[in-house]
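Help needed: design a sequence for this.
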């Protein structure tokens, strides 16, 4: 049986016609030829039909290579974000590289065998003049469709702080189908760490970044991995969060190790989970930006970061402190 509903329905209709033939009557030659050609198109066009029904979100989630010059060579940044056009994506992601150049000064092309790339427009003219091909017309549609799928998934993630992966997958599948993604489903993968389900991966400072790595367009599935509660991750990692501001607050005065532990517990008290602390010295070739570096040089304890981990079935925060001449662990 075909996986394409249209083909299945066509087969059912043919079976019904064979089982219940219409009364015999003569067909004109022209009509006979038309029916024969239609049958040939259905039988011989299987590959074409498969291509038509292949979901274009795969194109939309494809990575974009942002090159610094007028050709795909030299330094490159590889980025994926279906919410922006390739030129706007690269211009926003690499302002220091492109300097005063804007998205209008860039051009998106297809590098055969590699994918979509963005280069500086310069005086080289079209994509063909650079040995590249134009971006296919289907790309914009695929990107918009990918952005819509991502928005649907992330709305669900923001509305559910923590659901077990199996329950997350079940509810997200229902949400997808209610939003028009009727042949799509969410499936728990077993990967990741934590008690909750999540699709989005962290991208830069965004906890809910791209869902591209979790999307299988051929199977129409969205992979659900394990994660920690979204609210807890925001408390520890988000820009401007108590966890993020701990870096500078630990530099405000000279802390002892025990004093800094109390400070971290106070700032992250809303987490409601146990803390584990590590204390170490920096490697000889590693430094801390001022004024943290000055505190460290004076022998003070400074905050170096934190992460979440699962241990014995519970979640805990591991806070890393740094102090010059700290005893070896």
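Sure. Designed sequence:
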């Amino acid at each position: 049986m075909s996986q394409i509903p249209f083909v299945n329905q066509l087969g059912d209709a043919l079976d019904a016609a064979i089982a219940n033939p219409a009364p015999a009557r003569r067909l004109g030659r022209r009509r006979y030829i038309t029916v024969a050609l239609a049958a040939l198109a259905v039988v011989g066009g299987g590959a074409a039909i498969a291509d038509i029904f292949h979901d274009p979100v795969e194109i939309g989630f494809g990575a974009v290579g942002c090159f610094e010059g007028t050709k795909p060579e030299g330094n490159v940044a590889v980025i994926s974000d279906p919410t922006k056009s390739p030129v706007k994506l690269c211009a926003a992601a690499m302002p220091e590289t492109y300097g005063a150049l804007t998205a209008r000064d860039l051009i998106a092309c297809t590098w055969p065998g590699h994918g979509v790339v963005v280069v500086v427009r310069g005086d080289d003219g079209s994509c063909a003049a650079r040995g590249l091909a134009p971006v296919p017309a289907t790309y914009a549609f695929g990107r918009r469709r990918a952005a819509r799928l991502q928005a649907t998934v992330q709305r669900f993630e923001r509305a559910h702080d923590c659901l077990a992966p199996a329950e997350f997958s079940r509810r997200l599948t229902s949400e997808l189908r209610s939003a028009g993604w009727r042949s799509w489903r969410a499936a728990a993968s077993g990967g990741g760490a934590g008690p909750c389900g999540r699709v989005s991966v962290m991208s830069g400072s965004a906890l809910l970044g791209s869902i591209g790595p979790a999307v299988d367009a051929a199977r129409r599935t969205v992979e659900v991995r394990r994660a920690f509660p979204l609210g807890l991750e925001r408390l520890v990692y988000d820009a401007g969060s108590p966890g993020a501001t701990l870096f500078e607050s630990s530099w405000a005065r000279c802390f002892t190790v025990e004093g800094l532990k109390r400070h971290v517990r106070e700032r992250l008290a809303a987490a409601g989970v146990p803390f584990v602390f590590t204390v170490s010295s920096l490697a000889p070739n590693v430094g801390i930006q001022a004024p943290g570096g000055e505190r460290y040089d004076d022998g003070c304890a400074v905050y170096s970061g934190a992460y979440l981990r699962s241990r014995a079935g519970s979640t805990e925060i591991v806070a890393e402190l740094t102090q010059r001449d700290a005893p070896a662990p």
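DSSP finds twelve helices and twelve strands in the chain.
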